Amino acid sequence: MEIFIITLIIFILYLCITIFNENQKNKLYKLAYIDAITNLGNYYFFCKEGEKLIKHGTYIIILDINKFKTFNRKYGYEIGDKILKNVGQKVKKILNMNDMVCRFSNDVFGLLINHVQDIEKLIENIQDSLKNIKIEEKTYNVYSTIGIYKVSNDNISIKESIDKALIAHDNIKFNYNKNYNIYNEKMEKRLLEEHEIESKMEKALNNNEFIVYYQPKIPLKDNINIEAEALIRWSDDGKIIKPNTFIPVFEKNGFIKKIDIYVYEEVCKLLKELKKYYKKLPIISINVSKENFYVENFISEYVRIANKYEINTNNIELEITESVALDETIDISYVIGKIKEKGFRISIDDFGTGYSSFNMLLDMKIDTIKIDKKFIDCIKKEENNLVNYIIYMAKDLNLKTVAEGVENKMQIDYLKDIGCDIVQGYYYSKPLPKDELKKYIDKFLKNY
Ligand code: C2E
Ligand code: CA
Ligand code: CA
């Protein structure tokens, strides 16, 4: 009997220890692999299980919630957490039982999909379903951006596949009706180039590798002066790189604000130098990226620099693009009002490529519109071209007109006929280094 009781006690003890160990193991497992907020797997779980599921044709997907911080700030963390949980549940419901959704970090989810016919349709379904998430009678509109990688290589690891989905995600061009992007190899190449540019940009600025060129703008009427536009170049190891390769990268990473100020200061220096030669200074225009508009009072820095070089702000025209007007977070009329108060001129660049209307221009106290090259390219002799209407309406609003990218005499004759004020383009001159600009102005004034 005694032996029986002792055996029983030992058995019970063993059982307790085993259960305790199992519980501990479960707890540890949960800590390591399960996300406490959504109850989904986490990044490590995704990698561990994903390695077993991944095969040729698998889709690895990154889903990123837009502006999630705003939800937290506006409604509190409790609601924020509930939104995350709902997102997880909604996605899980749409996926096949054998596919997987995990939460990687704050507002980023990872999906692994093997069972799907039409991936784009599925993605659109997911994005639509998140647009109305109900929590305690209130509806929250959750917008997301999605990067997709379709496994095309049998030897690729799950982690490498996630990286490729991230690359696709990083390359999304914001668009009203398509907020997802499917990976291709070009993206990777572009990303590598972007990294290369980013690794060199600060040093390049300190080493004065950025050079400002100036493209003359020629008046078609007697009472207007010659002007010029400042256009940046990068002299990298003696090779001149045009801005289309690096400006978009700088716009993405914010470095553009430094570059714009740098170009602006170079222009002020040039104007100060030109004061020695000319009684009437040319107006120089400078491109101002949209990113500057997010900086509070950015214009006071511009004024400070103009004062430093004793330049009248009236000699400077700031070129902004129509996209500034599209951003609802910027009170564009107010900012433009401030810029005008300080004496700068303002022009709308690439006019006609965006969404601005003449009405909007009327509200915004603009001085000039620069008609985009695409309208100039399609000018046909003796026809009623679209540019004709643009200039007609601009005149009605008292706006100065500049035609961009003028390349032949026929275009110039036509533009002169319909009353365009100024032309800029290779027909007259390419962008020039500053010493050549001075020569160009001298020659122009002599012939005038
Ligand atoms: P943008 O402001 O529209 O500048 C006009 C572009 O058209 C310039 O290209 C100019 O060289 C080019 N162009 C002028 N005339 C002709 C022509 O007759 N034919 C052709 N095919 N092209 C012509 P660029 O210098 O390569 O600049 C490209 C863009 O980069 C600019 O477009 C502007 O958006 C941006 N950018 C240039 N410099 C700066 C800068 O300092 N700051 C900012 N934020 N952006 C800049
Ligand atoms: Ca421009
Ligand atoms: Ca332009």
What name does the CATH topology of the largest domain carry? TIM Barrel
Spatial gap, N to C terminus: 124 Å
Average pLDDT, to the nearest integer? 92
Shape: elongated
Tell me the number of strands. 16
CA gyration radius, whole angstroms: 30 Å
Structural class: alpha/beta
Strand content: 15-25%
Ligands (ions, cofactors included)? ligand C2E, calcium ion
- Number of structurally distinct domains: 2
Highlighted features:
TIM Barrel; 5-stranded mixed beta sheet; binds ligand C2E; binds calcium ion; 8-stranded mixed beta barrel; 17 helices; Alpha-Beta Plaits; alpha/beta; elongated; 448 residues; single chain; 2 domains; 20% strand; 16 strands
Structure summarized in a few sentences:
By secondary structure, this protein is of the alpha/beta class. The chain folds into two domains: 43-183, 2-Layer Sandwich (Alpha-Beta Plaits); 193-447, EAL domain (TIM Barrel, Alpha-Beta Barrel), CATH 3.20.20. It contains 17 helices and 16 strands.
